[in-house]
Amino acid sequence: MNFGDEALYDWAGYFGVAFYLISYTCLQLGLIRGSGYAYALMNLTAASLVLVSLTVKFNLASSIIQIMWIVISAFGIARIYWIRHRTRFNEEELAMVKEALPDMPRPLARRFLDSGVWVDAQPGTQLTRETEEVTHLHYLTSGEAKVVSGGRQIATLSRGFVGEMNVMEPGLASATVEIGSPSRVFSVPGTTLRRISASDSEFRAYLESHLSMATRHKLIEANKRLSQSKGD
Questions:
Q1: Would you kindly state where each structural domain of the chain is located, as residue ranges?
Q2: CATH 3.90.1150.10 for the 91-231 domain, yes or no
Q3: How many CB atoms lie within 10 A of CB 7?
Q4: N or C, fewer C-beta in 10 Å, the chain?
């Protein structure tokens, strides 16, 4: 083997180490999840590259570590595939997950849905009451709800979360949300969400991310309505 060939094997090892460092850094920064494909694939690639480099400068202990890392990573990928593809949703649940929790892994979305109930809400049903504690997180999938603050209707909801700003950190509702026409609503107790989140940091991270996006969307829509009212 000439020097040029040996250098290629050395570079394989360098790239393997780089993949190890990048994957762990991304994991710590929250850019990837330990239960996702990306982390397992990056570790599988890293171990494979380092193992290739060891074929020139053999070290038994290091080789055993890389082989075991490859086996564990491959098992992890197979496990993720099996778990995700055995998780089932009915049409109603799937539509909600795609709209409200698009980035949440299927097993976590299944856990979220199993924590709540579907309700056929009739006109007059109040999902939140102004100045009272928000006890549940709701998701309106059909129908219509009125948003009332200070005795005045300020908005109308046809889809989306209700109570997302105050359910994870218990707080008072800033408005009353009342069903205005027969609606389909998914509701989950805040105490249940907080309990799951306390024991599952990944679930909490995904849920809070989606609730924050829902809040930002509502603020953008509110600003648009305010601008339009000033223009009129």
A1: 3-86, 91-231
A2: no
A3: 11
A4: C
